């Protein structure tokens, strides 16, 4: 732990960062004292419940407003006829990360589950019943909700504004030289985030000041967005979001219900609480859209990929644009002489999809890893040997060198722990009792974006400090990991650092997403601390009374609340330096962002090995073992990073075997929009599972060397499980999730 | 019409004039008594976030009509710690990182306390995973949860041994 980051001044990284501390918010969370948005109960609170559309396309022609209003306890009811206006239409696209919303702007229904009225009542029970009494009638139109019948449209971009198509190398020429090729067709289905905490908001106005409690992954942007739609200044709004009960992307983007709650609170002059029911989280708050993917891999005689083509068909809503960028997963993982990727879009009568943990990468990786297994088979190579043969030394999409890439070590360590060397090449060779046993693998990869963040650090007269940034802790551990980085930036022990976070009056920490929050907000915090230290060093080295006087040339290191001379080791405590300078505090500022255009390809990598057991009579599939190894740059807190990685891998289990939102094709309604019908992994589905981290120093990705661990665990895992099912049964499912019936009904005998 | 309800919650006797017979025990705890540690994840008995102990048994409070539990003894997450000291299950959840966002955690912990008391799973991880499967965790902190239940089972057995 002796790393020194010279670019950041006289500060050591590694006294606090790198330690597997338990969560600083742990006691709050295990005693029920952590306050989530819906736990707030301001005086005079009204409970809000939305009525939601039970058709997917058409118009609301009648609501029994009289019956609902007559219900005891009902205070107010909003429909498109009387909803107070917004300053800007919720159909405006005011920012690329603001989706078009439904805030009762018309009687039009554009997807099932869309809010069509809002009821306010003195109790939740009364509001719930009154919403039911509205008994809507509709003029329904034929909905299109599947990849088979949705409307094609022209697009040049996928999610986050990335180009829809990419090509590098000469694919025609590369194919002409190839010895053989394989084609994989893989379908993935609609998935819903289903954070355990339903979306919630408590809104309260005091005069023209608005206080909002709502879980949000990007508080700064949320504040700007509320302000724009309400026609007020951001400074009039305070958003508190100290704890998110899971986000996974679904709480990064505002939805119409939040605007309605704020309008209702202003209109009634009372605080309003709106908590979505679980079934109402299917529609307005994003999801992962289904995909239909086709990959073609052309191989040369030696089993090297000569050409890689990856095409994705996916869909978005009828009124906004978010296309799952699945083909992008093939850009940078395996070496190929020629690369071609495309995305085609459809418009359907669904809520707008959005980023869901590893957006694009998760379904793209699933298909790519299945294709890689097919290709390994065609090349007559072990799946791991085949991937090693096609290891990319540079990013094939742009020729850039990787900032770091310890993928080979990941393969080696995970394979070793798993026991991969004993794998029979042929399928159906292993049994455990009556059950068929199979092993499969996949490579994991996830990009390392950085956003922008700002932070403050203030050293106090007693030598302790307070650091501030509006970070979001949705379970990844920001309260702990960011405080560790901040403490290192200040050269203090973490117990001496108070970390203020989770509300919008603090410097903007940017978005908790893209696995880039720790890197971005962490950099801002570190720099703010380093700024304080730089000022301290100036004070001390320029002061003849200090033991550090004149140490400027040989250097000074900040550690444990003291500045140390590098030449003779003499030191002085921060509080003494401040006292002599007559200062009762010293303030520093920092920002975090990537500087300039990247000249290297920046990714986290990993390898995942899966064992499945398949019941030959019932087709039941269980993951019995899962081993991953990941290289993700500097790990700030190994305990929390492991949890993130394991969580991602369990998401991979859900993706591979369970999760699927089903629509009734005739009405466009969901048939399983609850946690009994939409299966997410339970504890018994998460078997012996291990995630290793492989050491990686990355001097290029950012000054702290952090890459991010939040999403990569999903990638690799899905394909590994699919490939293990093939190895157990000899059957290749062309669709995720692989359900028992897909094996049983495949026509092949198990 | 107001109905009167007698409950013992976390050791304290409580007389409650219930304004609405439709209220679930969960909504009574959260919205009327301010005991918001117990969470609502689904309101349909499908997630376990609302798990409390009623007369020592784990129950989904969202499926319990408050009125039908007149006279019951209820323990919620707020009543588990022993003064300043965490309950061994709470301590184990922190040590083993048995949570991430923490939203399912009160339910997981109450469920774990009951599971250990039921003495069905013992130290068999497979049976613990099975016995904890009524409590969903979307963060998927399952490995840590299982570890925590194992550790807490051992700690509680040790306590019992010492007491005997
Ligand atoms: S809230 Fe009661 S089981 Fe989900
Ligand atoms: S810790 Fe987030 S749902 Fe369990």
UniProtKB/TrEMBL annotation, chain A:
<dbReference type="Pfam" id="PF02738">
    <property type="entry name" value="MoCoBD_1"/>
</dbReference>
<dbReference type="GO" id="GO:0005506">
    <property type="term" value="F:iron ion binding"/>
</dbReference>
<protein>
    <submittedName>
        <fullName>Dehydrogenase</fullName>
    </submittedName>
</protein>
<dbReference type="InterPro" id="IPR037165">
    <property type="entry name" value="AldOxase/xan_DH_Mopterin-bd_sf"/>
</dbReference>
<dbReference type="InterPro" id="IPR036856">
    <property type="entry name" value="Ald_Oxase/Xan_DH_a/b_sf"/>
</dbReference>
<dbReference type="Pfam" id="PF01315">
    <property type="entry name" value="Ald_Xan_dh_C"/>
</dbReference>
<dbReference type="InterPro" id="IPR016208">
    <property type="entry name" value="Ald_Oxase/xanthine_DH-like"/>
</dbReference>
<dbReference type="InterPro" id="IPR000674">
    <property type="entry name" value="Ald_Oxase/Xan_DH_a/b"/>
</dbReference>
<dbReference type="Pfam" id="PF20256">
    <property type="entry name" value="MoCoBD_2"/>
</dbReference>
<feature type="domain" description="Aldehyde oxidase/xanthine dehydrogenase a/b hammerhead">
    <location>
        <begin position="31"/>
        <end position="142"/>
    </location>
</feature>
<dbReference type="GO" id="GO:0016491">
    <property type="term" value="F:oxidoreductase activity"/>
</dbReference>
<dbReference type="InterPro" id="IPR008274">
    <property type="entry name" value="AldOxase/xan_DH_MoCoBD1"/>
</dbReference>
<dbReference type="InterPro" id="IPR046867">
    <property type="entry name" value="AldOxase/xan_DH_MoCoBD2"/>
</dbReference>
From TrEMBL, chain B:
<feature type="domain" description="2Fe-2S ferredoxin-type">
    <location>
        <begin position="3"/>
        <end position="80"/>
    </location>
</feature>
<keyword id="KW-0408">Iron</keyword>
<dbReference type="InterPro" id="IPR052914">
    <property type="entry name" value="Aldehyde_Oxdr_Iron-Sulfur"/>
</dbReference>
<dbReference type="InterPro" id="IPR001041">
    <property type="entry name" value="2Fe-2S_ferredoxin-type"/>
</dbReference>
<dbReference type="GO" id="GO:0051537">
    <property type="term" value="F:2 iron, 2 sulfur cluster binding"/>
</dbReference>
<dbReference type="InterPro" id="IPR036884">
    <property type="entry name" value="2Fe-2S-bd_dom_sf"/>
</dbReference>
<dbReference type="InterPro" id="IPR006058">
    <property type="entry name" value="2Fe2S_fd_BS"/>
</dbReference>
<dbReference type="InterPro" id="IPR036010">
    <property type="entry name" value="2Fe-2S_ferredoxin-like_sf"/>
</dbReference>
<keyword id="KW-0479">Metal-binding</keyword>
<dbReference type="GO" id="GO:0016903">
    <property type="term" value="F:oxidoreductase activity, acting on the aldehyde or oxo group of donors"/>
</dbReference>
<dbReference type="Pfam" id="PF00111">
    <property type="entry name" value="Fer2"/>
</dbReference>
<keyword id="KW-0560">Oxidoreductase</keyword>
<dbReference type="Pfam" id="PF01799">
    <property type="entry name" value="Fer2_2"/>
</dbReference>
<protein>
    <submittedName>
        <fullName>(2Fe-2S)-binding protein</fullName>
    </submittedName>
</protein>
<keyword id="KW-0001">2Fe-2S</keyword>
<keyword id="KW-0411">Iron-sulfur</keyword>
<dbReference type="GO" id="GO:0046872">
    <property type="term" value="F:metal ion binding"/>
</dbReference>
<dbReference type="InterPro" id="IPR012675">
    <property type="entry name" value="Beta-grasp_dom_sf"/>
</dbReference>
<dbReference type="InterPro" id="IPR002888">
    <property type="entry name" value="2Fe-2S-bd"/>
</dbReference>
């Amino acid at each position: 732990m002796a790393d020194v980051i010279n670019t950041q001044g006289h500060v050591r990284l590694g006294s606090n960062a790198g330690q597997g501390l338990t969560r600083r918010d742990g006691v709050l969370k295990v005693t029920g004292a952590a306050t989530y948005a819906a736990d707030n109960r301001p005086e005079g609170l009204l409970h809000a419940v939305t009525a939601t559309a039970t058709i997917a396309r058409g118009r609301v022609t009648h609501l029994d407003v009289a019956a609902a209003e007559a219900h005891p306890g009902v205070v107010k009811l909003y429909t498109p006829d009387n909803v107070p206006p917004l300053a800007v239409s919720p159909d405006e696209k005011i920012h690329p990360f603001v989706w078009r919303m439904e805030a009762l702007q018309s009687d039009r229904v554009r997807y099932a589950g869309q809010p069509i009225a809002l009821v306010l009542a003195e109790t939740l029970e009364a509001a719930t019943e009154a919403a039911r009494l509205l008994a809507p009638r509709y003029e329904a139109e034929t909905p299109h909700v599947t990849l088979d019948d949705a409307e094609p449209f022209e697009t040049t971009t996928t999610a986050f504004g990335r180009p829809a198509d990419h090509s590098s190398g000469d694919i025609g020429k590369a194919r002409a030289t190839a010895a053989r090729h394989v084609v994989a067709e893989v379908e993935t289905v609609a998935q819903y985030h289903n954070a355990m905490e339903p979306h919630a908001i408590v809104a309260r106005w005091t005069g023209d000041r608005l206080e909002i409690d709502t879980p949000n992954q990007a508080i700064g942007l949320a504040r700007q967005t509320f302000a724009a739609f309400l026609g007020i200044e951001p400074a009039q709004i305070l958003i508190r979001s100290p704890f998110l009960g899971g986000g996974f992307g679904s709480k990064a983007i505002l939805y119409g219900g939040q605007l309605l709650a704020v309008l209702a609170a202003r209109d009634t002059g009372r605080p309003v609480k709106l908590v979505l029911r679980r079934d109402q989280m299917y529609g307005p708050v994003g999801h992962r859209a289904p995909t239909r993917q086709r990959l073609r891999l052309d191989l040369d005689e030696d089993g090297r990929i000569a050409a890689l083509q990856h095409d994705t068909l996916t869909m978005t809503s009828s009124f906004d644009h978010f296309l799952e960028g699945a083909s992008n997963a093939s850009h940078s993982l395996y070496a190929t002489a020629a690369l071609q990727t495309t995305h085609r879009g459809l418009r359907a009568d669904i809520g707008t999809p959005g980023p869901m943990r590893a957006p694009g990468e998760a379904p793209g990786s699933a298909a790519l890893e299945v294709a890689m297994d097919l290709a390994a088979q065609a090349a007559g190579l072990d799946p791991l040997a085949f991937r090693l043969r096609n290891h990319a030394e540079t990013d094939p999409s742009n020729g850039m060198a990787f900032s770091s890439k310890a993928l080979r070590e990941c393969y080696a360590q995970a394979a070793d722990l798993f026991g991969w060397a004993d794998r029979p090449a042929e399928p159906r060779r292993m049994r455990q009792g009556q059950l068929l046993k199979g092993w499969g693998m996949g490579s994991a990869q996830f990009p390392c974006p950085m956003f922008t963040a700002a932070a403050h650090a203030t050293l106090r007269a007693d030598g302790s400090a307070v650091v501030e940034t509006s970070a979001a802790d949705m379970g990844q551990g920001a309260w702990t990991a960011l405080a560790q980085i901040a403490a290192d930036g200040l050269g203090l022990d973490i117990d001496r650092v108070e970390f203020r976070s989770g509300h919008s009056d603090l410097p903007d920490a940017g978005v908790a997403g893209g696995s880039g929050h720790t890197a971005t907000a962490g950099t801002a915090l570190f720099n703010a601390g380093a700024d304080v230290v730089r000022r301290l060093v100036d004070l001390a080295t320029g002061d003849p009374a200090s033991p550090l006087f004149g140490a400027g040339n040989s250097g000074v290191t900040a550690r444990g609340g003291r500045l140390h001379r590098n030449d003779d080791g003499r030191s002085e405590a921060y509080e003494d330096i401040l006292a002599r300078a007559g200062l009762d505090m010293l303030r520093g500022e920092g920002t975090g962002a990537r500087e300039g255009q990247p000249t290297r390809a920046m990714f986290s990598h990993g390898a995942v090995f899966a064992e499945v057991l398949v019941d030959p009579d019932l087709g039941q599939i269980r993951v019995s073992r899962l081993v991953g190894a990941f290289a993700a740059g500097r790990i700030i807190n190994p305990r929390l990073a492991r949890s993130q990685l394991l969580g991602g891998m369990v998401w991979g289990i859900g993706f591979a075997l369970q999760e699927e939102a089903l629509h009734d094709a005739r009405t466009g309604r969901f048939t399983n929009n609850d946690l009994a019908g939409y299966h997410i992994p339970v504890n018994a589905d998460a078997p012996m599972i291990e995630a290793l981290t492989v050491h990686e120093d990355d001097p290029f990705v950012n000054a702290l060397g952090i890459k991010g661990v939040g999403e990569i665990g999903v990638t690799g895992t899905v394909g590994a499980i699919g490939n293990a099912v093939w190895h157990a049964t000899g059957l290749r499912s062309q669709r995720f999730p692989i359900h028992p019936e897909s094996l049983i009904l495949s026509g092949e005998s198990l | 019409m107001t109905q009167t309800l007698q409950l013992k919650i976390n050791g304290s006797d409580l007389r409650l004039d219930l304004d609405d017979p439709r209220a679930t025990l969960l909504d009574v705890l959260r919205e009327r008594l301010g005991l918001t540690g117990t969470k609502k994840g689904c309101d349909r008995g499908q997630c376990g976030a609302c798990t409390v102990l009623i007369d020592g048994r784990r129950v989904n409070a969202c499926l319990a009509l408050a009125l039908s539990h007149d006279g019951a003894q209820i323990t919620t997450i707020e009543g588990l710690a022993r003064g300043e000291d965490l309950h061994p299950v709470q301590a184990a959840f922190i040590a083993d990182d048995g949570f991430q966002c923490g939203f399912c955690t009160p339910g997981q912990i109450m469920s774990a306390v009951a599971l250990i008391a039921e003495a069905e799973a013992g130290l068999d991880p497979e049976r613990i995973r099975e016995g904890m499967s009524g409590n969903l965790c979307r963060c998927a902190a399952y490995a840590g949860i299982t570890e925590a239940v194992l550790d807490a089972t051992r700690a509680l057995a040790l306590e019992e041994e010492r007491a005997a």
